[in-house]
Amino acid sequence: MLKPLIYKTNKLLVLDQRLLPHREEWLCCSDATCVAKVIRDMAVRGAPAIGVAAAYGYLLGARRRQESGEPVSVDSLSGVYDELAAARPTAVNLVWALDRMGAALAGLSHLDDETRVARLTEEAQSIEREDLEANLRMSQHGAALVDRGRWVLTHCNTGALATAGQGTALGVIRDAWAAGRLEGVYVGETRPWLQGARLTAWELTQDEIPYRLFCDGAAASVLASGRVGWVIVGADRIAANGDTANKIGTYGLAVLARHHGVRFMVVAPRSSIDRDCPDGRSIAIEQRPADEVRRFAGHAIAPGDAPVENPAFDVTPNGLIDALVTEVGVLHRPDRYGIAQLFE
Ligand code: MRU
After folding, report:
1. What pTM did the predictor assign?
2. Which of 236, 243, 314, 322 is flagged as catalytic?
3. What's the confidence (pLDDT) of residue 325?
4. Is the pLDDT assigned to residue 109 strictly greater than 90?
5. Contact, 91 vs 39, CB < 8 A?
6. Cβ(158) – ligand 1 distance below 6 Å
7. Residues facing 27 on adjacent strands
8. Is the C-beta atom of 195 inside 6 A of ligand 1?
9. d(CA 212, CA 187)
10. Cα 322 to Cα 197: distance, rounded to the nearest angstrom
């Protein structure tokens, strides 16, 4: 399985996803500032992968302090925490992973700095391993819902490049294909970063899973065709009532799916659920630079000063979600009560 991140010899290697599928280049980070930058600039993306990267970024910050003889403590690392947390505001996995690293460190005050850094290394590796395991469990739960002989539709990239394992929504698609339940996958191109066209199409090609790539604007006619049984997507932040923020365009797909009688599945680990966020209105939506819309592959495609709105995510209300698949099972028609039960 492809890996977007490799931690070795005190460095984080990051596969530069902006260049895929045509060039495979790795960036090398040895401090937290570099990790914050690769997250902000989209070299690594996808909520769970961002969380894993942030955990290693925190570790690199701790290691830097240890090497320069400064104390390794939650207080001395508060700047590192803030810098990483601010890199991208919507994916809750980022702060979730940082909070886990901070909580682990808080419990180590009786140990020396070298041992603390060793324990933080184990914590970051656990976050990575647990995400991989959660992917496998979600994939099985979700694949069991997919009807034989139909197509599914997915958006953005939720595969190995976006996680520490085989993916969330794409993990479900992989298992459904392996079980012989799928005809194929409709993949939305996902403007403006084209995660569907560049990354999901690449992963499906490698697994020899049949797919058809479509322009985002063709979603309504694809869903009207009657071939699609499920729309299957990931999540960046799920509120306590099940409202779900995911890549821009997801909400439109959910509305279209309901209109055409197609079911809508969100696949995400519990680390993507923000129980402090009561509903979708309180989810901060990242606004990205205007030139991502005005320009394409380095060329201007709109007037240079065209006013732009470029939200990176939108919120799908819980009422449009038929199934929320997590590592602990499937929640049909997610609501506040069901989400709370996932943590019991
Ligand atoms: O802007 P991106 O590429 O980080 O957005 C990614 C998504 O919206 C994914 O659907 C989400 O993070 C889930 S990835 C398993």
Report:
1. 0.97
2. 236
3. 98
4. no
5. no
6. yes
7. 14
8. yes
9. 6
10. 26
**Which of these, 65, 51, 75, lies nearest to 117 by C-alpha position?**
65
**Distance in Å, CA 343 to ligand 1 centroid:** 23
Q: Domain 5-136 adopts which CATH fold?
A: Four Helix Bundle (Hemerythrin (Met), subunit A) (1.20.120)
Measured in angstroms, how far is the CA atom of residue 203 from the centroid of ligand 1? 15
Q: Do domains 5-136 and 142-341 have the same CATH topology?
A: no
Q: Which amino acid is at 62?
A: A
Choose which CATH entry (3.10.580.10, 3.90.230.10, 3.40.50.10470, 1.10.3720.10) describes domain 142-341: 3.40.50.10470
Confidence at 234, pLDDT banded by 50, 70, 90: very high
Residue nearest to atom 8 of ligand 1 (CA): 247
Query: Of the ranges 24-28, 57-61, 111-115, which one carries the lowest mean pLDDT score?
Result: 111-115
- Closest to 290 (Cα-Cα) out of 192, 190, 198: 192
The domain spans of the chain are 5-136, 142-341
Residue 236 a catalytic site member: yes
Does the structure show a pLDDT above 90 at 1?
no
- Quote the CA–CA distance of 266 and 64 in Å, as a whole number: 39
User: What residues does 311 pair with on adjacent strands?
Assistant: 287
The Cα 260–Cα 202 span in angstroms is 28
Nearest atom in ligand 1 to the alpha carbon of residue 195 is 3
